[in-house]
Amino acid sequence: MATPKDEGFYMPAEWHPHTATWMAWASLQETYEEAPQGPETAFGMAKEAYGAVAKAIARFEPVNMIVNKADVEEAKQFCGPAVNVIEAEIDDGWFRDSGPSFLIDRKGGMAGVNWVFNGWGNKHPHAKDAKIARTILNREGIKCFDCPLVTEGGALHVDGEGTLLASENSIINQNRNPGLTRAEIEQYLIDYLNLKKIIWLNGDIPGDETDGHIDGLACFIRPGTVMASVTPNKNHPDYDVLQENLEILKSSSDAKGRPLKVVEVHNPAQFTEDGMTFTGIYLNHYIVNGAVILPLSGFSEDDQKALSLFKREFPRHEVVPVPSTVVWFGGGNVHCITQQQPAVDVTDCREAKIK
């Protein structure tokens, strides 16, 4: 069976122009059982945050929000008229993980990878979410490549030029892919994302239900440049892991042979009252057409430093801060609840016309 690589498809970088952003409505109260506000209050706050994120993105590009039938009116109320609400069955709102990874070729084609989704190692209900990627691709008339690899979109970050960042813990894991070797897993990733190089990081983050998704650890922000999550607090439980990853990145090069430039992003130094710590909250931003949607921690000094850093690193983008700490208590943030649909690339068509 032909793979995306065989047919010339690849996953572009997040900063490639988008035709739309896809999201799924927060739908499972138990996700917020550990939130300090209590699950019922936090669940309501999460819906407000989802609506705020959708509205922020809709200023710059179309937003498609997938919603269970019972929640359609609620979602419309929170999201407003600029967001396109689409009825379909879902378990919860982490569409980065359950949705397709969109691909393009250089001839104006589009496709999507339907990974096997098992609820982050069978930790949460996922029967509906396991079907949503194919449902959306079929609805949009987009070619679907079914990949037998168990993984999630939040475990993958590409530069669009053949390089993938990923954490070992979230893919090379017995709760996802028992029996597969590292080499076999790498081959699936190479074939379905059209890669030339994979940079593996350590995702051993205590208490992280995703088993250390890459979008809380490191990400490309432009060719040859990576943001890395770090903490200045040596008492932070993730300090050693983040330092290890920082050294890996500083000694790595991308698929084109360029040594990586590493921009350090400090996690909030403060701990929450109940002892929970922040890892990768600012890393979990989302690049849209002309803007960066930046989650805030609620700690004003740390947030201001992050805002300054992002304005420096994205001088041509508007940096849009969104208070979304409650989503973090549910297990993710802005990047985890969004998925970009890239604009098609017609490079070959243009070159043919020029010739």
The domain tally reads 1
The helix-and-strand class reads alpha/beta
Radius of gyration: 19 Å
User: Mean of residue pLDDT?
Assistant: 94
Major β-sheet strand ordering:
3-2-1-16
Low-confidence stretches: 349-355
How many alpha or pi helices?
Answer: 11
Q: Can you summarize the main beta sheet?
A: 4 strands, mixed
- State the CATH class: Alpha Beta
| DSSP summary, beta strand count | 16
- What is the N-to-C succession of helices and strands? EHEHEHEEHHEEEHHEEEHEEEHEHEH
Short descriptors:
355 residues; alpha/beta; L-arginine/glycine Amidinotransferase, Chain A; 4-stranded mixed beta sheet; 3-stranded mixed beta sheet; 11 helices; 16 strands; 29% helix; 23% strand; globular
